[in-house]
Amino acid sequence: MKVIITKDNIEGGTKAFEIIKQGMENGARVLGLATGSSPIPMYDDMCDSDLDFSNMTSINLDEYYGLKPDNDQSYHYFMQKHLFDKKPFKNSYIPNGMAKDIDEEVDRYNEIIANNPIDIQILGIGRNGHIAFNEPGTPFGSLTHKVNLTESTIKANSRFFDNEDEVPRQAICMGIKSIMQSKKIVLLAFGDSKQDAIKALVEGPVTEEVPASILQDHPDVTIICDKEAAAKLSDKYKN
């Protein structure tokens, strides 16, 4: 596990972009993508670059269940706004939050991932160590699955909606085993609210109570975090 500490999220986004660029130069063709505030600077660099993604495939981690793609809180909308409108991909896969049968959609998404092995997976991390919507207690062997969102996640996400009642209660999410099958993983974390999560991810025990801790067992992981998020790491990671 490699830890890169940056002065801020802008520099961190550039570091992540450089990894993607190098990966593409070395033959990467499938990117696993994430939503949230952490990857936005990386997406800005991707949009401002001269890289051509028209022969690339993207696979997103998750989507709320029950939100239409044009809802401004859906992850479809987020990806269009921050990346795809400026840099379209050959194929872009995001779970269908309006699928009539959620179990069929889960099966469909697992097949997409199986048929398009992910070369570089981008991740964020929650304060409790969750990755995507894989909350504490999610089995490490999980594939794409239906998630009943926890009250803490619903409350945290309510700031993006007019009121808490509008926050979806379910999501479709790539599983931890699916994430771990990616050839390379890049996790982004910025701000002092992520200190405990980064400490547990890098130096804590591998436990399903901290979903991100499983990344210690992956052969190619890069953690990109700013000084605030890295504040509780041992000195060996700061030099």
From TrEMBL:
Q: What does the record give as the reaction this protein catalyses? A: alpha-D-glucosamine 6-phosphate + H2O = beta-D-fructose 6-phosphate + NH4(+)
On whether Hydrolase is a keyword of this UniProt record, the answer is yes
Q: Where is the Glucosamine/galactosamine-6-phosphate isomerase domain?
A: 25-218
Q: What EC number is given for this enzyme?
A: 3.5.99.6
Where, by residue number, is the active site? 62, 128, 130, 135
Pathway as given in its UniProt record: Amino-sugar metabolism; N-acetylneuraminate degradation; D-fructose 6-phosphate from N-acetylneuraminate: step 5/5
Give the UniProt keywords, A-Z: Carbohydrate metabolism, Hydrolase
A single BP term in Gene Ontology: N-acetylneuraminate catabolic process
Q: Name one GO cellular component term.
A: cytoplasm
Among the Pfam families in the record, one is: Glucosamine_iso
- Highest taxon listed in the record's lineage: Bacteria
Provide a Gene Ontology MF annotation, just one.
identical protein binding
Q: What does this protein do?
A: Catalyzes the reversible isomerization-deamination of glucosamine 6-phosphate (GlcN6P) to form fructose 6-phosphate (Fru6P) and ammonium ion.
Q: What PANTHER family does this protein's entry cite?
A: GLUCOSAMINE-6-PHOSPHATE ISOMERASE (PTHR11280)
Q: What family is this?
A: Belongs to the glucosamine/galactosamine-6-phosphate isomerase family. NagB subfamily.
Q: In its UniProt entry, what is this protein called?
A: Glucosamine-6-phosphate deaminase
Q: Which organism is it from?
A: Lactobacillus hominis DSM 23910 = CRBIP 24.179
What gene is behind this protein? Answer: nagB
